[in-house]
Amino acid sequence: MKKLRDILKEQFKDEKFKEDFYRGLEKTRIATEIAYYREKRGLTQAQLAKKLGTSQSTIARLEDPFYDNYSLNTLRKIAKVLDLELIVSLREKDERAQEEFTPIADSNTQQKTNRKSNKKRGSKPLISIH
């Protein structure tokens, strides 16, 4: 039985698949992080919308992993209202794929490192776009 890493390695030979894969990761991360931090702050979509001066349906759209029309300005507003730091970064795709599919033990180590890093920055959570 093939491992996911091996299957993806084969699929990544197709540039279109690779591009779509990374685009999907990007959108899913953004949508998931908005919903996660909104819920962590105890806000409904309607409450967040009110704070942003928009509609609940707009928040629902921003939390949809298939939505792909985010603007930095909108993400900045969300970060401000939710008391988050917005981080935008670029990095090598191969590095990203490697990080995405590391064993759970490695992921746990990374989470501990991130928590220590967050404490140094004042414990503010992040919305990150990679």
Give the SSE map.
Elements lengths: L3 H8 L3 H26 L4 H8 L3 H7 L9 H10 L3 E4 L4 H8 L3 H17 L5 E4 L1
Parallel strand pairs: 1-2
Helix pairs in contact: 3-4
The low-confidence runs, each spanning 5 or more residues with pLDDT under 50, are 101-125
Radius of gyration: 17 Å
Order of helices and strands: HHHHHEHHE
Which class do the helix and strand fractions yield? mainly alpha
What's the total number of strands? 2
Mean pLDDT: 80
Task: Report the portion of residues in β strands.
Answer: 5-15%
Side-by-side strand order of the widest sheet? 1-2
Helix content: 55-70%
Q: What is the overall silhouette?
A: elongated
GO molecular function, one term: DNA-binding transcription factor activity
Keywords: DNA-binding
Pfam families: HTH_3
Protein name: Transcriptional regulator
Explain the overall architecture.
- The chain is mainly alpha-helical.
- The protein has helices at residues 4-11, 15-40, 45-52, 56-62, 72-81, 93-100, 104-120, and strands at residues 85-88, 126-129.
- The chain has a two-stranded parallel ribbon.
- The two termini are 31 Å apart.
Summarize the structure.
The protein is mostly helical and 130 residues long. The protein is built from seven helices and two strands, in the order αααααβααβ. GO terms for molecular function: DNA binding; DNA-binding transcription factor activity.
